[in-house]
Write a structure and sequence with these properties.
Arc Repressor Mutant, subunit A; about 5% strand; two-stranded antiparallel ribbon; about 70 residues; 2 strands; mainly alpha
Length: about 70
């Protein structure tokens, strides 16, 4: 799955996952959705974002939740 809008730069937001090198992080976008904003509302409030930016932020976050973290045996 291509995530060409998700960028990492140590000089922007401390290297966090950002949208197209801008100072808006994936976590900010995901938080907006989690708090009930629609894609249209996000784009209205952040006009420099595009629908694909929001969709890729959500895809990236979903991919991160697929990681397996084994529980150490006792």
């Amino acid at each position: 799955m291509m995530l060409d809008r998700i960028t990492f730069d140590p000089n922007i937001m401390g290297g966090r996952a950002c949208i197209r090198g801008m100072r808006i992080t994936v976590s900010q976008v995901v938080n907006l959705v989690a708090n009930g904003m629609t894609v249209s509302e996000i784009i209205r409030d952040y006009p420099y974002l595009e629908e694909d930016d929001v969709r890729q932020a959500l895809r990236y976050a979903a991919q991160l939740t697929e990681e397996v973290h084994p529980i150490p045996s006792r």
